[in-house]
Design brief:
The chain is an alpha/beta fold. The chain has a single domain, classed as Rossmann fold, CATH 3.40.50.2300. It is 32% helix and 19% strand. The chain is built from four helices and five strands. It has a five-stranded parallel beta sheet, sandwiched between helices. Strand 3, helix 3 and strand 4 form a beta-alpha-beta unit. The protein is globular, with a radius of gyration of 14 Å.
Length: 133
C-alpha cells in the first residue's frame, strides 16, 4: 500500500469546509484521493459508482473527482449531470486509459482536469488547486 505524505490541515477562512464528491470503483484509489483531500480540510463524500454518487450528491458541491470508466454511469456523464445542478463545478477525471483525455470534449474548460492512473498525490492536488482557486 502506498504511503501518503503528511499534510498540514488548516481551517478555511470562513470556518466551513468545502465539499468534494470522490467517485471511483477502485476502493484503494477512492481512499487515497479522499484521504488526501481530508488532510487539506475538505469534507469528502465517497461513492463506488456514478449512480450512487448521484444519490449522494449534496445540494452544495465544490469539487467532483471521478473515475472515467465505471459501470452504468461514466465519469463524464456524472460530471455533465452534476454540472447541470452545480454550474461551473470543478471536475477532475482520473483514468488508467491515457486516451481518455482526448474523449473529454464535453467537459473542456478551465474548471476541468485529467489525471492519469497511477498518479502521485501531489499531481492530483496540484490539478485540484489549479481548477478550484
Amino acid at each position: 500500500m502506498a504511503t501518503l505524505p503528511r499534510f498540514s490541515t488548516s481551517p478555511l477562512a470562513n470556518g466551513s469546509a468545502r465539499t468534494a464528491l470522490v467517485v471511483d470503483d477502485e476502493p484503494l484509489v477512492r481512499t487515497l484521493v479522499s484521504t488526501a483531500l481530508r488532510h487539506r480540510g475538505w469534507f469528502v463524500i465517497e461513492a463506488a459508482d456514478g449512480a450512487t454518487a448521484l444519490d449522494l450528491a449534496p445540494a452544495t458541491l465544490d469539487l467532483l473527482v471521478t473515475d472515467y470508466e465505471m459501470p452504468a454511469v461514466t465519469g463524464v456523464t456524472l460530471a455533465e449531470i452534476l454540472r447541470r445542478r452545480h454550474r461551473a463545478l470543478p471536475v477532475v477525471v482520473v483514468s488508467g486509459h491515457p486516451d481518455v483525455a482526448a474523449k473529454m470534449d464535453a467537459l473542456r474548460g478551465p474548471r476541468t482536469a485529467f489525471v492519469g492512473k497511477p498518479f502521485p498525490v501531489e499531481e492530483l492536488i496540484s490539478k485540484i488547486g489549479s481548477i478550484t482557486s
